[in-house]
Queue: 4 jobs
Job 1
Amino acid sequence: MTAVATYLDHNAGAPIRPAAVEAMVAALAIGGNPSSVHRAGRLARRVIEEARDSVAALCGAESSEVIFTSGGTEANNLALLGAVRGGLAARLLVSGIEHDSVRAAAAGASVPVTVLPVDSEGLIDLAALDRLLSAGEGPALVSVMLANNETGVIQPVAEVARVARGHGALVHSDAVQALGKTALDFPALDVDMMSVSAHKIGGPAGVGALVKRAGIDLVPLSLGGGQEYGRRPGTENLAGIAGFGAAAKAAATRRDLAPLRDRLERELLAALPGARVFGAGAPRVDNTSCIGLAGVRAETQVVALDLAGVSIGAGAACSSGKVRPSPVLTAMGESEETARSAIRVSLGWNSEAADVDRFLSAYIEFAGRALKARAVRGEKETHHG
Ligand code: PLP
């Protein structure tokens, strides 16, 4: 299969960066086990530790705080389940717009879970957090994502941490969609744990990390050897980690995508006054647009754009191909119907002005047709009704 002409679905998975491929091929050629003391083992160990340094630098963290995992999903599970199993948390408070991997991990943690509300822009309600933390008993862990995968809205995580600290609660933030898109400063965020993933920044899928403050004594999810500071047993995914490191290094010189994204939204809204951009009134990462076209199903929009050679995402998370109304938008108070009409356009490291042009011309042409067809249908229904 050849690469698609215009790929604007970086939040689902970014195309792999050439530097990551190169690092992975080199790592595969080493072939040793990083725990071995011989030369191949030492070489492999060096690759891992260099990657750890690069990932830590992109997170503004210490290398010793980075635990490699199989991705963002595992990092989120390790944070929540590891804290509960380690006796660090007897209740969980998670925002209503978290990724499935946080929601499902919380639901499976066998402790009380409180869902934190967000406002119509998708921002967490800090007063409600304060109130809900007061209302419960026992040590709490608060999990609030840094940037939302569908809208790009950035949460005031440092403020969340300030409120949580007032109640002695631990804080985790899923920063999978923030890594490489906004400057991360782990100590300044003041969270205890933060999840990141390689394939959103041009690294390979299947590798990520939990960045964890020293002294947070998590119980590992699986049992085995002492790899990754005893928190993630199993021989390390050497090639994956090498690819993550190379992608992190490349992502350190961040591209400002705001001008491209802002033009996309400006021109789209000018051509289609009925369209909406969700979360536009809140701080957002500069690569993401969540767009609603009332009455036109997201999957119809995605398929039409695909036929025009443009890949975008359905705002409704479609982790297994199934499309359901976006829980993020319904948590923001939108109707199910509106949530079913949301698409996500997400730019990334290789996006260019020409990609935005191709998207705009394909989308505006399609939307014009779809809206006209809808109007004709409506007229017929009026006559017949
Ligand atoms: N968290 C967020 C916000 C995401 O967008 C994703 C990926 O879609 C994940 C976690 C899961 O990461 P991974 O695919 O590496 O398991």
Note: The CA atoms of residues 93 and 114 lie 5 Å apart.
Job 2
Amino acid sequence: MSKICLCLTAETLDENRHFVDEYRSSTDILELRVDCLRPDQWEMVPGALKRWELPVILTCRREADGGFFTPEQEKERQDLLWSLLDAPFAYVDLEKDLTDEKWIEKCRDKQILPIRSLHDFNGVPEDLEAFIGKAHPGEIFKAAVTIDQAEDYKVLLKILQKGLPEDTILLAMGATGFFTRVLAPVLGSWLCYCSPSTGIAAAPGHIDPLELCQRYRFRSLDRETPIMGIIGNPLGHSKSPQIHNNWLKEGEIPGVYIAFPLPEIHLLEPLRNLLDLRGLSVTIPYKVDVLEYVDEASSRVNTIGACNTLYKKEDRWMGENTDAPGFLKPLLDQLGCTDLLGRKITVIGAGGASRGIVYALKEAGAELLILNRTESKAQQLAEEFDQKWGPLSENALGVMEEYRMIIVQTTDAGMHPHIEKDPLEFYSFRGDELLYDIVFNPEITRVMERARKAGASILGGYPMLVEQARLQFKLFTGKESSR
Ligand code: NAP
């Protein structure tokens, strides 16, 4: 079973002790980063270890491996490491090039297990496979690499596909490699390094141990665990893992949902071969390109031309679009009706999201006026769905008069980090409109604020996000999500 390691990077042993106490229930092993400690703390390390009552890894990093010891301080670093081997550590991190036999002999003498480590902050080193191939009983092998480039990502997946030798840690740093940390028990990695969310992360991509245990249910993961997730690039602070994992937990449904920022879409193929993936949410920029990886697309996907959901059905990958119905439900709920027959609606924007929304609104019976900054795109979309179009400027005010009671905002103007933008600044709300802005970050956009001040009704994008996820959850798990 993979272990959880809490990395201690505070300047003092006292501060570290607070983290040990706070996270004791979700930690198997501690890693004391001696390079982060103030020098006056070094001699107090043996006493602290006895009080912590957990196995501790001794680590003293140099700059090249993400630590604080400079190349000029290498002798001082090695002397410190050597002297601390007399303290009651359970493990010591020895970089792969620290080859002198004396280290192994002292470890054997002190009954400390060495962790042979390799770090690459720029990619995957050519000798990674050979390094892991040398893993043998009596030492733990650890490699921390970077897979932001598609080539590196592919190499790592290939190595993981072959399976890891026992007592090996293979992880990728940063957001792209996040899955290698959370899925350590699935990938056969010996340990997952974590950092407290309130402290300094020991390396890029560390997760808080409580989040690992509570949101991702790390202790229950194994090679049989059904995996779901979201692909896109970048994924930033996607809310989907929080939404889906909550439903899995509340419904006591086996499975885990992870963010997979993919540098390039073709990596989906080896990722699907490696993991027992049951379903994937798909977001920018892959909603169209992902169609190449779908065995059977729904008629909705074919009409909209974009797919935000992949799910497995008897070994076939099905493509669905839940954005469209997920958008419609909150609107119908707000209006208290079941269709939009005879309603005239202005849609702002003609991008990917707008396509699904235009489809959904038309299906529900509405007549639309599509306004877009690039008018030709509004025209193209409107002609495809047999609707009206116009420019996103005061020149549209005349024609908008008939379509202004419901306004749907689908552009990313107003979305974080462009929160100061208002795509409708040429329009003065009168107070009898309903403005539905599908942006969900921030919760209230600038244009929503303006509409609210004028007395208009407003609806934000979060309910849509939840509704489209709810439909995906059913496709992924066959179960209803909790309310
Ligand atoms: P997209 O395909 O890139 O389209 C962007 C649209 O925004 C285009 O119409 C573009 O106009 C317009 N635009 C961009 N900046 C603008 C500005 N400063 N002023 C006026 N118009 C501007 O993106 P998308 O996939 O449609 O996504 C759009 C938004 O919808 C995003 O904020 C996304 O988070 C949100 N969304 C929310 C949900 C949800 O569940 N709530 C689901 C999907 C999407 P041009 O054609 O002139 O460039």
Note: Residues 462-477 form the longest helix (16 residues).
Job 3
Amino acid sequence: MSETATPLTPLFTARQIQQRVRDLAAEISAATPPGATIHLVGVLTGGFVFLADLARAFAQPVTIDFVKGSSYRSGTTSSGGVTWSLEPGGVAGKDVLVVEDIVDTGTTLCALHERLLSDHPRSLRCVSLLDKPARRQRKVPVDFVGFVINDVFVVGYGLDHAEQYRQLPFIAALPEP
Ligand code: IMP
């Protein structure tokens, strides 16, 4: 479906998202030692809008980095793995917060978690705007979740279908073709 087809109905409006992002920043701040710098590691491309809004909702200092990975399937198994076209920078001794757009199978987050842990951060937590638990294949730690959704394909607020819809200020379920 292209963006010129039937208009999409928001699943979460821009206003609902902005409120939830503010609440998430408050929850995360309350669970972080006062004055600590939070090192945000955004997962491209889908996480760029959420990270930009979340970063600006924090009162405390943040630093920002991005990673970009793509998952692949090894042989006939569905376990897969992830190759990084943009590698994580050094996180040793930092209070890291991974910022994901959506946790689906959990493959990306699982691989990123292992990768970051091997660099010995001081702490490692994850926030995902959306969580789609019905499709999970990997047990992954998601410390903060914006919205839990059913097994639907969603677009908007950074999330795409064939690179379209990322700029929408709301999130919508993409209708079946
Ligand atoms: P994973 O399966 O948890 O590794 O998720 C991999 C990536 O798939 C996510 O970071 C998203 O970019 C993408 N993805 C998963 N579900 C959706 C969806 O419903 N809409 C758009 N992208 C999705």
Note: Strands lie at 10-12, 38-44, 62-72, 81-86, 95-103, 123-131, 144-148, 154-155, 171-173.
Job 4
Amino acid sequence: MAKIEWIRLSEVDSTNTYAKEHVRTHNTAVLSDVQTQGKGRDGRTFLSHVGGMYLSLVRMDDLPVAESPRYMMAAPLAVLSVLKQYGLRPRIKWPNDVWVSGKKIAGILIESECDGDRIRRAVIGVGLNVRNEVSDVPCAATSMLLEGAEADVDCVAEQIARRLDGLLSYSLSELHGLMRKHLLSIGRKVTLPDGTKGKAVDLAEDGRLIVCLPDGSLLRVAAGDVTLSE
Ligand code: BTN
């Protein structure tokens, strides 16, 4: 198992931003107690109170761009695997949120730096509600503590980083198989960000969600949040 270097901060704007500005060594993890400008996907803010886990793992795997779904799949699978060790029953909501009891417990933001068709650096950011306040989070959210799991933030971060490092040695098709198995969205009615309604029927190997529209045609959705209707 590869060694992971740690940078431990008490406060930072965003561990992803810090990693992008300061870290160019493979398998370096940045962990902060608090983020003052935590970033979510699609330009959203990620509220980051004390008691949560705010982790960014820097990877310099030098993969072809076509392999980028590996990061997208390995990250939620790492969170899922660690949460299971604490007795929780997590699922993945496409593209890579982790939910427990029908509520969001973790979010993932991956920022990559490419050179031609190679990914030179990927910063995999994971925010997990461990024992932090979630009542002001703008979506239905839960935490490990609310679900009955007492955990230490540093310990959970180390477990997730190690699991992520391990999963990143899996092939894309292995990760795809695991992801499909744990995806909450398949078989559910969904609404796409532009209001289009359909039913999520499968996950493509490139990480796209395959949605069947009312006219029977199939749409491969690459990005954006989908709302689950039932
Ligand atoms: C989302 O749910 O939209 C993604 C949230 C990602 C949050 C994590 S916390 C660690 C890392 N640093 C950030 O600023 N964002 C990610």
Note: DSSP finds four helices and 13 strands in the chain.
